[in-house]
């Protein structure tokens, strides 16, 4: 029989894969429709109510696309709705949050060196921050500030910077970045579910009833769609950030996250301007490069902790009778790379920020040691430190017996 840790690791992989697939579908359609909208052109003789059109070529065929700013004169026979990509992305993302961060809260969500809390408290706080992010955003959009796209975007950016700072004082650095991405993704998906699709349904209902639709619904939906477009690239970065501890595990991680949002906006501005045929703002790439260099510099500032405390889940592994032998194995086979000052040639920072040079560090990473070096031969890479089968069996016995 498969043991629980192996099953759970495969489950987390499956959920992550599903999230990536649905994200590709949603982001791809989002990028396409924004580019299409910006590329529309008007010409004489267009149908009544048509705002613009565009000819495209793809896959050996030509496409003639027309957009109605409010709605056509009558309901078309077939209408394709683009909404399930958004919903599936959010649902799979939340499932991944549950599988990885809630089920593994002691390791991935809660850091007693940041804020000591119980697992239920951490999970409730996580859900509360995600929900509160959408409420604050929606209220700002519906306020008088929402009439100014530029003013609203600036205020929203200030709110995101504050949230980034606040999250790093609640959770682990990795979880803080993930939650910032989850808040942003929730805003994007809720825009579709709570605003864009309902507004489009109002327009469709008016068409079916023979009424002339109110253009305000399309205007509101377009503003939310524009926000989604500019938030897409930062969300992608935050989705991948858990693989890069130099981003989430350093002193100024919240500043790094804030600058990533700016870089994403700059890059989207470049492509949006190009698609609208309004010029070639290459300065955006220079600005993005400068900000990226600043991010690299910020990541070199060491994060100073007053002291490490092992979580309650990790303490059982320290107390195991196998732990002294396990510690010797890990220190001899793993800590030359996974240390605050790696001694292995060519390694200057511990891979993925995993530190295995203290008892606490080893115990906190017990599950990963078990999976990466016990049950599989993924670590050490190419077995460069010549860990033996007997030592791998020791790691397995340690984890399985202590976890009972």
Please sum up the structure shown.
The chain has 404 residues and is mainly alpha-helical. 63% of the residues lie in helices and 4% in strands.
Q: What does this protein look like?
A:
By secondary structure, the protein is mostly helical. It is 63% helix and 4% strand. The protein has 15 helices and two strands. The protein starts with a helix and ends with a helix. The mean pLDDT is 87.
Q: SSE order, as H and E?
A: HEEHHHHHHHHHHHHHH
Strand content: under 5%
Strand numbers in spatial order across the main sheet: 1-2
The overall average pLDDT, rounded, is: 87
Main sheet summary: 2 strands, antiparallel
Count every helix, treating DSSP H or I runs of 4 or more residues as helices: 15
Query: In angstroms, what is the radius of gyration?
Result: 25 Å
User: Which structural class is indicated by helix and strand composition?
Assistant: mainly alpha
Shape: elongated
Number of strands: 2
Terminal CA distance reads: 16 Å
- Uncertain parts: none
Portion of residues in helices?
55-70%
Quickly list its features.
two-stranded antiparallel sheet; 404 residues; 2 strands; 15 helices; mainly alpha; 4% strand
Topology at a glance:
Elements: H1 4-39, E1 50-58, E2 61-68, H2 84-102, H3 105-109, H4 119-142, H5 149-167, H6 173-208, H7 215-240, H8 245-248, H9 253-275, H10 283-298, H11 312-318, H12 323-333, H13 359-364, H14 366-375, H15 389-402
Antiparallel strand pairs: 1-2
Helix pairs in contact: 1-2, 1-7, 1-9, 2-6, 4-6, 5-6, 5-9, 6-7, 7-9, 9-10, 12-15, 14-15
């Amino acid at each position: 029989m498969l043991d629980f840790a192996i099953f759970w690791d495969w489950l987390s992989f499956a959920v992550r894969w599903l999230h990536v697939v649905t994200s590709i579908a949603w982001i791809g359609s989002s990028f396409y429709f924004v580019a299409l909208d910006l590329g529309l052109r008007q010409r004489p003789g267009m149908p009544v109510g048509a705002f613009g059109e565009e000819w495209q070529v793809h896959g050996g065929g030509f496409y003639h696309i027309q957009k109605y700013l409010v709605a056509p004169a009558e309901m078309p026979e077939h209408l394709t709705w683009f909404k399930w990509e958004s919903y599936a992305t959010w649902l799979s993302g939340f499932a991944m949050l549950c599988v990885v961060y809630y089920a593994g809260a002691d390791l991935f969500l809660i850091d007693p060196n940041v804020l000591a809390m119980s697992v239920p408290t951490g999970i409730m706080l996580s859900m509360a921050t995600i929900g509160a992010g959408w409420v604050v955003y929606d209220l700002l959009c519906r306020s008088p500030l929402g009439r100014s796209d530029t003013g609203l975007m600036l205020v929203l950016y200030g709110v995101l910077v504050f949230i980034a700072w606040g999250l790093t004082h609640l959770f682990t650095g990795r979880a803080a970045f993930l939650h910032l991405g989850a808040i942003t993704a929730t805003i994007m998906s809720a825009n579709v579910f709570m605003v864009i699709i309902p507004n489009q349904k109002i327009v469709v209902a008016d068409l079916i009833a023979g009424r002339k639709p109110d253009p305000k619904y399309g205007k509101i939906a377009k503003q939310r769609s524009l926000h989604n477009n500019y938030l897409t690239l930062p969300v992608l970065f935050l989705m991948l950030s858990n693989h890069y501890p130099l981003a989430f595990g350093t002193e100024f991680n919240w500043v790094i996250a804030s600058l990533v949002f700016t870089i994403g906006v700059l890059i989207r501005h470049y492509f949006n301007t190009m698609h609208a045929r309004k010029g070639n703002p290459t300065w955006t790439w220079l600005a993005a490069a400068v900000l990226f260099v600043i991010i690299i510099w910020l990541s070199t500032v060491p994060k100073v902790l007053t002291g490490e405390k092992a979580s309650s889940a990790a303490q059982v592994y320290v107390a195991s009778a196998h732990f002294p032998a396990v510690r010797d194995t890990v220190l001899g086979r793993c800590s030359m790379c996974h240390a605050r000052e790696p001694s292995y040639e060519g390694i200057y920072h511990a891979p993925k920020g995993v530190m295995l040079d203290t008892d606490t560090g080893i115990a906190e990473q017990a599950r990963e040691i078990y999976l990466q070096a016990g049950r599989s031969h993924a670590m050490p890479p190419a077995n460069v430190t010549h860990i033996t089968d007997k030592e791998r069996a020791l790691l397995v016995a340690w984890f399985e017996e202590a976890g009972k």
